[in-house]
Write a structure and sequence with these properties.
five-stranded mixed β-sheet, 382 residues, Heat Shock Protein 90, phosphorelay sensor kinase activity, transmembrane, His_kinase_dom, alpha+beta
Length: 382
């Protein structure tokens, strides 16, 4: 709302400036036009008839000044008529021109009689003075409307261009702000994820050290360092191929398998086309972590995690399932199991909006299943 108000405010400021400029142009044209009338009158009457007297010269200047003054009310009338219908505008304009020409004729004839000491000109020569006055005022009205129409179209064009420029500027600022906010959210989700995973892994290493299984603890530390190196090398707002994502999962699962030994098995069924798909980096790690934590860790005899991936109708579908106890009724109606699924859902929404979908349900054969769908795009290294 504020951006829209700012945009319209900026455009209206430009329109006000244009109005001021056009007001200045009106006065320049007025002075130039009535000066031209004085010069033309001097050349065509005073010089032509060889009546170069100071009275005639003063009258020539004075009648232009009077004409300029008389046309000012016409400007106010014509401005008021500008938005009216054409018939009313023509009628009132004609009446205003006749009235203006009549007033100008009377005033300049009175001035001439006063300067030249003439009498009874109004009754004998009014018609001869009125016709050129009517012609001049008609031309003035025609020029006013022509220039007014041109100025209005120019003002509309400038207003439209300025409004579009302001809108584009506001749009770019909004996109920049949204991009910054989105990157900050993605980084926040990444920072939430790493401590969560580290906490579980370091607890497992601590337990192995406590049990004096030092070789397993060292093995887990090596795998943890490899996984973290891979994690830190991948920007969460960038994409990777599902093939590389599965490689990262292998590093993670090797850490978990060191904890669970033969209690954890993994089955991967991903089509070649799906493996070449572009996905957000480390997208599946929290899903696998939840499957291990809630599906495998609570079973004495362990269990299996199944990863499926396929492409159909331009959509990449990835399924992570386990054969554990499944989701509780509360988990199925809320955001899911802890930070992992919540972060995954938010990342998908930030990156794909309504084009992404994440579903949670219990499997008929037992266990939990998380299915996510995103637009299928082939990954490119460039």
């Amino acid at each position: 709302m504020r951006a829209a108000q700012h945009t319209h405010s900026g455009a209206h400021e430009w329109l006000d400036k244009i109005d001021r400029d056009y007001g200045m142009q009106f006065w320049i044209l007025q002075l130039f036009g009535w000066t031209g009338v004085a010069v033309f009158t001097f050349l065509s009457l005073t010089l032509y008839y060889n009546t170069i007297y100071w009275q005639h010269i003063v009258h020539t200047i004075l009648q232009s000044i009077i004409g300029l003054a008389v046309t000012l009310p016409l400007r106010w009338i014509f401005k008021a008529l500008w938005q009216k219908n054409v018939a009313l505008r023509i009628f009132v304009t004609a009446m205003a021109v006749v009235a203006g020409a009549t007033v100008w004729t009377l005033l300049r004839m009175i001035a001439f009689m006063w300067l030249d000491h003439k009498e009874n000109l109004l009754s004998t020569e009014f018609g001869g003075w009125f016709y050129p006055s009517f012609f001049i005022f008609s031309c003035w009205a025609a020029l006013y409307y022509s220039i007014k129409l041109y100025q209005e179209r120019q003002a509309q064009l400038v207003f439209s261009l300025r409004l579009d420029a302001d809108r584009r500027e506001e749009h770019l600022k909004r996109l920049e702000a949204e991009t910054t906010a989105k990157e900050a959210q993605l980084k926040m989700l990444r920072y939430q994820l790493n401590p969560h995973f580290l906490f579980n892994t370091l607890n497992a290493i601590s337990a192995l050290v406590h049990l004096k299984e030092n070789s397993k603890a060292r093995e887990m530390l090596v795998r943890l360092s490899e996984f973290l190196r891979f994690s830190l090398a991948n920007d969460p707002k960038l994409q990777t191929s599902l093939e590389q994502e599965l490689h990262a999962l292998t590093l993670y699962l090797q850490i978990e398998q060191a904890r669970f030994a033969d209690r954890l098995s993994v089955r991967v069924e991903v089509t070649p086309e799906a493996r070449r798909s572009a996905v957000p980096s480390l997208l599946l790690q929290p899903l696998i972590e939840n499957a291990v934590k809630y599906g495998i860790a609570n079973k004495e005899d362990g269990g299996e995690i199944k990863i499926q991936g396929f492409v159909a109708k331009g959509v990449l579908t990835i399924v992570v399932a386990d054969d554990g106890p499944g989701f509780s009724s509360v988990e199925q109606t809320t955001s899911g199991r802890g930070v992992g699924l919540r972060n995954t859902r938010e990342r998908l929404h930030l990156l794909y909006g309504e084009e992404s979908k994440l579903d949670m349900r219990n499997r008929e054969a037992g266990g939990a299943q998380v299915k996510l769908r995103i637009p299928h795009v082939l990954f490119s290294e460039c």
